[in-house]
Write a structure and sequence with these properties.
The structure is a single chain. By secondary structure, the chain is α/β, with parallel strands linked by helices. The protein has one domain (about 20-440): Alkaline Phosphatase, subunit A, CATH 3.40.720. About 30% of the residues lie in helices and about 15% in strands. The strands form five sheets. Strands 1, 4, 5, 6, 7, 8, 11, 12 and 15 form a nine-stranded mixed sheet that branches. A two-stranded antiparallel ribbon has the order 2-3. The protein has a two-stranded antiparallel ribbon with strand order 9-10.
């Protein structure tokens, strides 16, 4: 049995506040890419010489911090002692059954989702597992691996875009690692206009322009004297912040202009509003959005009551997001990934809860060229082991990159010149590979 942790979000401290984004300007307030748009890559490790699909343009990660139980969500075990009180319900997809706590997903978008039931990992500590799921690598002292959102931003983003290309809504996330401040995610709350993008009171447009001109003068002199990459990066961040302040795209962060019927569909929860913000950011060209704001899934005690409280807002927000994207013809261009850092023990503990469990759990994927209405892989009768089509975390990362046309075999280098392959290795040392069944190939 794993020990009780102080909390699933202790690791989520590599982020940037809204105020810091505009007023401080350091630490990487904009996640905008400076590399050119990537060319078409051949991907030898994808299987049969497959090339990246390049179907998706953006990713929305629905982050279930704390570790959701696969048995009480996407891999129910009714009739088995481990299944507990959770019943299985039918979905729109023939033969696909999921847990009863997700009725809207089942009824509205069950034919759009693919459930990976064979996810397996070795990390059952919140911080280490969260790092693994966000980067595809286990943490090591000698390397700060980038978030997959930072990689996607760097490899596919627009270096001249007016708003950040990597945004974390309702909470922090793993940062850009050795990629540096340019790709660090912007952290925002759900549904509100961005703070501090307007000039201070009493400062008119003319005076603000004069201030920024003076700032650029000082910055250029410092750059000339220092001739340092960090100083140049600092100047670039201020330039992006200045551009953001006058961009009409900042309206994407404010849901007030959405019709009431749309806002009602997503619900009034922090998570539901975050999903609506994510859709608006996708429409505005943002490459990677993480949405948090759910109740903790770290359910060591009273899991059935906790599921009844915590699952409905997630069910509503997730179903509304996928349905809305589909109706707007954005689902093919947007990959939606639902996941937490690990699963929970199949056997119910003495407190009527479930403890940390990494050996077998589920991840849900929709859009971005994914073939919906299917379950890939299976666990044993009691949910303890993966018995069909195991998928390790590097395989999952490879599949996300594949959908966006990112070459997973590419090697990048940290500031000390140490190489890192974009897709890491499995437990046996082999390279992570695309889950081809996701894409019907």
């Amino acid at each position: 049995m794993s020990r009780q942790c102080s909390g699933p979000n202790d690791f989520m401290n590599d982020n940037v506040s809204r105020r810091g984004f505009v007023t401080v300007g350091t630490g990487g307030l904009l996640s905008l890419m400076f590399a050119p748009t990537m060319n078409q890559f051949a991907w030898a490790q994808a299987g049969a010489g497959a090339k990246p699909a390049r179907t998706a343009k953006s990713v929305i990660l629905l982050w279930m911090g704390g570790g959701p139980s696969h048995i009480d969500t996407w891999d129910p075990k009714p009739g088995h002692a481990n299944g507990g009180e959770t019943k299985a319900i039918r979905t729109r997809a023939n033969g696909l059954m999921i847990g009863e706590h997700f009725p809207r997903v089942a009824e509205d978008v069950g034919d759009k989702i693919a459930v990976l039931r064979g996810i397996t990992s070795t990390e059952a500590d919140h911080a280490r597992a969260s790092y693994l799921l966000h980067t595809g690598y286990t943490p090591i002292p000698t390397m700060q691996h980038p978030n997959i959102g930072a990689i996607i931003t760097k490899e596919t983003g627009n270096p001249e875009y007016e708003i950040p290309q990597f945004v974390s809504v309702n909470g922090g996330t793993i940062g850009a690692g050795f990629l540096g401040s340019t790709y660090t995610p912007l952290q925002v709350g759900a549904g509100r206009p961005l703070d501090n993008v307007a000039a201070p009171g009493g400062v008119d447009k003319k005076r603000m322009t004069e201030r920024m001109t003076l700032l650029r003068y000082f910055q250029s002199n410092v750059e000339a004297i220092a001739n340092d990459d960090a100083v140049k990066s600092h100047s670039k961040v201020y330039g992006k912040a200045e551009k953001l302040m006058s961009s009409p795209l900042t309206k994407a962060f404010d849901v007030a202009s959405e019709p009431q019927a749309v806002r009602t569909a997503y619900g009034t929860s922090q998570f539901g509003t975050g999903c609506l913000v994510a859709r608006r950011l996708v429409e505005s060209g943002v490459k990677f959005i993480q949405v948090g704001g759910t109740a903790s899934w770290d359910m060591h005690n009273g899991i059935y009551a906790a599921m009844q409280r915590g699952a409905p807002p997630v069910d509503q927000g997730m179903a509304a997001l996928i349905k809305d994207l589909d109706q707007r013809n954005l689902l093919r261009d947007t990959m939606v990934v639902w996941m937490g850092e690990f699963g929970r023990t199949p056997r119910i503990n003495g407190n009527q809860g479930r403890d940390h469990y990494a050996r077998a759990f589920s991840v849900v994927v929709a859009g971005g060229g994914v073939k919906g209405g299917q379950a890939i892989g299976a666990t044993s009768e009691g949910g303890e082991e993966v018995v069909d089509r195991p998928v390790q975390i590097p395989d999952l990362v490879a599949s996300v990159y594949y959908a966006l046309g990112v070459d997973g075999t590419k090697t990048v280098y940290n500031t000390l010149g140490r190489p890192m392959r974009l897709v890491g290795a499995r437990k046996d040392g082999s390279n992570g590979e695309v889950v081809r069944e996701l894409f019907g190939v």
